[in-house]
Amino acid sequence: MDKIKTSLxxxxxGLRGAYTAGALTxxxxxxxxxxxxxxxxxxxxxxxxYLMKHTEDLLDFSVFGITDxxxxxxxxxxxxxxxxxxxxxFDHILKEEKKYDISDLKTCKSEGxxxxxxxxxxKTVYYSTRDISYKELEASTSLPILGxxxxxxxxxxxDGGITDMIPIKKAVEDGCNxxxxxxxxxxxxxxxxxKAFVVWLMKMMYPQCKNISEDYRIRHLNYADQISLIRQLExxxxxxxxxxxxxxxxxxxxxxxDELKELFDLGYSxxxxxxxxxxxxxxKDA
Length: 286
Description:
The structure is a single chain. Helix 1 runs antiparallel to helix 3. The protein has 12 helices and 8 strands. It is of the alpha/beta class. Helix content is 42%, strand content 14%. It has helices at 18-29, 42-51, 55-64, 74-80, 86-97, 134-139, 168-173, 196-205, 212-217, 219-235, 257-273, 275-282; strands at 6-10, 36-39, 111-118, 123-128, 150-152, 155-159, 178-182, 239-242.
């Protein structure tokens, strides 16, 4: 029998990541760790707090910090010319106001991996949380078009969700054979094809990256493949799939603190409802 290697796999979802934050708080409260963990977009930031066991930050960032009016909307447009000001979110709100510090990631027992789309390579590359820089973490959440390109050491970077919305394939490629997958959309969600105008805009805005517009055009197909793999692993008893058990008013970029707290609590309670299956999944002497 193959040695059991467990993974935690986290989707992004913008403000919907409050669901993930609640689910991760449940994992911390129950002392559950994994051999490897994978996060995309907002899921990447929540992953760092999970690895460092920062339950207060999981709640604060996902419910209160992310709704700050200075991050998105008119104030962001006036400041940086983009709908979402990721520099202000990371450098001012998180780093200065909330004293967010990722230095503890270097000594965490469990290793995490965060997906970043590198424009020069035209693909999503995974970075270990033990070595990740602050700017790389910012890049992992910076949506194309809505946010600015994050640059560091000659690299131009964006959100890895351009190709890998749910990083399950990476977990399988790395040899993990039991997976806890947490997504932020209901189980009946079907991703629609990108609008032709958005695909064209990607091509115009990122002429240095020949792959990005095509990657965005087939994004719905990649998502369907990722869900299909998760469902197959679930059927084979190699995965537990956790997703919102009811619909929420929260969208990628919209939601009140009360709505986000409700979604956070739903993530926690949905995990509790699947306690038996999760405990069986991570049990190493089974």
